[in-house]
């Protein structure tokens, strides 16, 4: 059977009706399906929130113990500058004082920009928030014991948490016995000033 | 079931009714005259969009059975088409129906060919229908519409003769083994009050004709079913039975028809064609005499209606789907509110409890993690003191050695110097920090005695290695490179007492030291 223009003409309105019905159906089903999916998502979210709230409430006793147990140590970390913004001024001042206390001949320092501290375990949730600034120190010492004397004096200032990562002592071509009141050795050390961002952990 | 217009056309008149919700409505009768056609046209104006199903009840009809070879598909259509054109040259209203396959060896097909031999009977009515723009669905011989009576009346006799008195006359339709075989119409023109005996004679003639055709045997019992809508055939059963013991009658008057078919008595009284119109309304026969050009409009109409139906079904399906979605979403929203309320309750209780906690700048977990990580960093802190101490002790026992430089490194990879591969010998966890270092020294004034110098250096290295914290000590550079895979040069004429034996030793500490 061949279709004629009359056949097509007769099917125009039904075809339009079908197209409208299909479009309306898709739109309707799409809209309500989205609504339902959104409702299901909200329900899942609320269910998770409920579980969290329930667990938090049930563990509030433990939480109280945790706060009581750790708050003092945390405050101390705040006090020494581990928790909070970098205190470079304090570090430099402490270094100057330590130099004087150790009786050295001056310390040259270079500090890099702050970067993530790599030497923390990944299983600690706040590990990624620990950052450090590397400081290169160059100074002359009378003998090798002066090196540790400097760092002990620095540590006693409680300027923050720092970690020594490299040190070298060099005779620098000097021969014979060390001379008194003179830098017989050249020391170079790398240390990391470690801090944790309180803005990110205070959630 | 969709509404439709049912029309029964005979030579003298046409009866029309609207079929809607399984009922006949607006039944009307029109004379086959100019006035009747005009009135019919006026009637059709009220039936806009309804498809028309037509019954033809006339003597100018033909039924015949033909046996043709068994073929299928287009070949069959072409063969049967040729045969029909041969048989019915003067009319476009013909069709066929495959009845059965014969049981003979050839297994030929047996066809019923049917035609309206005088198309003029339909012309005025079809013209009016065309003028009203109504689609013609089909044209059916009244005899074939009667086939539906077998099922409705649950008739089972192998020799069945159904008698009905329609507006065109007395219709006798014979069924052999419940299959249509022969139909005869005896017109009633001018015979408004014909005696029962006359009808009985007609039926007797039909019986003799059947016997003559050997369709029935003389001794076969013939079941005669009389459908008497207007009560004019009440005496016919006794007239038929009189003197004919091999014929039995089943008489259905207007009440029986009403109870069997559910047709209101008022409708049955309106016209004697109402029963067949009702049957056609319920189901159209398969054999349709209407030529394709006549039903083209109906096909378009039916296709359009199907598409509208599909559109409606799609919308209904979508509405149901959406309804289920909305209902489910509302249900879920209700659950969400309940869960939200419970969460708020727990949060409020938690707030009450935490109000009594010591003042803290962050959560308990953050407090713990921060303190723990600070402790971890502190625990991992190292100084070069240990290395200096070990080297110092070794130097005390090796006074010939003069230290030039000492390097210390603490990290997850040892201090890298050429030839220094301590990590191969020290399996350790990833990220674990270890101490390592390099000692640069010399033996001044060794007098060119490399063997003695090497012994001193080896003793020095062994002393360092004796410490428990040291994992490995390796010489990076010796005064004399005695390895076979490297070159060697020097001079035995060097000035004694001036040269120094320089060396470098790498020290790697144990993990955790």
Describe this structure in words.
The complex is a heterodimer of chains A (203) and B (513). Helices cover 52% and strands 20% of the residues of chain A. In chain A, helix 3 (88-102) crosses helix 4 (145-156). Chain A has 203 residues and is α+β, with helices and mostly antiparallel strands. Chain A has helices at 5-58, 60-80, 88-102, 145-156, 198-201; strands at residues 107-111, 115-116, 130-141, 161-170, 185-196. The radius of gyration of chain A is 35 Å and the shape is elongated. By secondary structure, chain B is an alpha+beta fold. Chain B is built from 14 helices and 17 strands. Chain B has helices at 34-45, 73-87, 123-132, 142-145, 147-152, 196-212, 236-241, 254-261, 265-270, 274-282, 292-354, 364-379, 385-396, 450-465; strands spanning 4-10, 13-20, 23-31, 52-57, 61-68, 94-101, 109-116, 136-141, 159-166, 169-176, 179-187, 222-227, 247-252, 402-411, 434-444, 470-477, 500-509. In chain B, the strands form four sheets. Chain B has a five-stranded mixed beta sheet with strand order 3-2-1-4-8, with helices on both faces. Chain B has a five-stranded mixed beta sheet with strand order 11-10-9-12-13. In chain B, strands 14-15-17-16 form a four-stranded antiparallel beta sheet, covered by helices on one side. In chain B, strand 1 and strand 2 (13-20) form a beta hairpin. Strand 4 (161-170) of chain A pairs antiparallel with strand 14 (402-411) of chain B, so a sheet runs across the interface.
């Amino acid at each position: 059977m061949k279709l004629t223009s009359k056949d097509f003409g007769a099917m125009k309105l039904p075809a339009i009706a079908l197209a409208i019905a299909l479009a309306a159906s898709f739109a309707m089903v799409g809209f309500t399906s989205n609504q339902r999916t959104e409702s299901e998502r909200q329900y899942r979210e609320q269910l998770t929130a409920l579980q969290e709230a329930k667990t938090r409430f049930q563990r509030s006793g433990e939480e109280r113990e945790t706060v009581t147990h750790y708050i003092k140590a945390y405050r101390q970390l705040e006090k020494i500058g581990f928790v909070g913004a970098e205190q470079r001024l304090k570090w430099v001042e402490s270094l100057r004082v330590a130099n004087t206390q150790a009786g050295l001949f001056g310390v040259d320092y270079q500090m890099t920009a702050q970067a993530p501290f790599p030497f923390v375990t990944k299983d600690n949730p706040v590990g990624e928030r620990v950052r450090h600034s590397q400081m290169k120190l160059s100074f002359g010492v009378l003998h090798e014991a002066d090196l540790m004397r400097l760092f002990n004096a620095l540590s006693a200032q409680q300027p923050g948490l720092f970690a020594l990562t490299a040190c070298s002592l060099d005779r620098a071509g000097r021969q014979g016995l060390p001379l008194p009141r003179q830098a017989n050795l050249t020391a170079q050390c790398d240390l990391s000033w470690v801090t944790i961002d309180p803005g990110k952990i205070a959630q | 079931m969709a509404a439709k217009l049912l029309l029964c056309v005979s030579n003298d008149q046409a009866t029309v009714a609207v079929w809607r919700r399984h009922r006949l409505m607006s039944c009307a009768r029109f004379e086959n005259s100019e006035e009747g056609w005009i009135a019919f046209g006026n009637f059709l104006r009220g039936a806009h969009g309804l498809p028309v199903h037509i019954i033809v009840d006339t003597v100018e009809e033909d039924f015949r059975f033909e046996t043709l070879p068994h073929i299928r598909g287009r070949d069959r259509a072409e063969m049967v088409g040729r045969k029909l054109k041969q048989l019915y040259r003067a009319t476009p209203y013909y069709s066929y129906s495959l009845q059965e396959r014969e049981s003979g060896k050839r297994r030929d097909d047996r066809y019923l060919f049917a035609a309206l031999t005088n198309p003029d009977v339909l012309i005025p009515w079809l013209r009016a229908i065309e003028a009203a723009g109504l689609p013609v669905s089909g044209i059916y011989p009244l005899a074939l519409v009667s086939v539906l009576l077998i099922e409705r009346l649950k008739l089972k006799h192998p020799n069945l003769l159904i008698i009905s008195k329609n507006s065109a006359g007395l219709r006798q339709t014979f069924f052999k083994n419940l299959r249509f075989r022969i139909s005869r119409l005896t017109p009633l023109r001018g015979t408004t009050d014909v005696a029962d005996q006359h009808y009985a004679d007609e039926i007797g003639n039909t019986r003799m004709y059947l016997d003559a055709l050997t369709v029935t045997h003389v001794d076969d019992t013939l079941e005669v079913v009389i459908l008497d809508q207007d009560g004019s055939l009440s005496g016919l059963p006794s007239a038929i039975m009189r003197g004919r013991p091999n014929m039995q009658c089943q008489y259905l008057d207007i009440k029986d028809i009403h109870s069997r078919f559910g047709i209101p008595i008022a409708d049955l009284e309106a016209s004697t064609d109402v029963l067949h119109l009702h049957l056609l309304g319920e189901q159209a026969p398969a054999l349709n005499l209407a030529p394709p050009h006549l039903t083209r409009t109906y096909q378009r109409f039916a296709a359009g209606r199907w598409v509208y139906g599909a559109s409606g079904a799609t919308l209904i399906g979508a509405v149901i789907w959406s309804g289920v979605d909305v209902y489910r979403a509302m249900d879920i929203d209700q659950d969400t509110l309940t869960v939200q309320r419970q969460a708020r309750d727990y949060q409020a209780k938690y707030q009450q409890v935490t109000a009594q906690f010591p003042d803290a700048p962050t959560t308990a977990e953050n407090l713990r993690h921060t303190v723990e990580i600070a402790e971890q960093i502190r625990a991992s802190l190292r100084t070069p003191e240990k290395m200096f101490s070990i080297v110092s002790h070794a130097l005390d026992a090796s006074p010939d050695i003069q230290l030039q430089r000492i390097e210390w490194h603490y990290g997850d990879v040892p201090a890298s110097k050429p030839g220094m591969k301590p990590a191969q010998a020290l399996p350790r966890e990833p990220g674990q920090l270890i101490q390592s270092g390099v000692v640069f020294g010399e033996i001044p004034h060794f007098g060119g005695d490399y063997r003695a110098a090497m012994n001193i250096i080896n003793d020095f290295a062994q002393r360092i290695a004796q410490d428990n914290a040291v994992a490995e000590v390796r010489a990076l550079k010796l005064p004399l490179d005695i390895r076979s895979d490297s070159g060697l040069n020097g001079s035995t004429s060097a000035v004694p007492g001036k040269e120094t034996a320089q060396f470098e030793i790498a020290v790697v500490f144990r993990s955790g030291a």
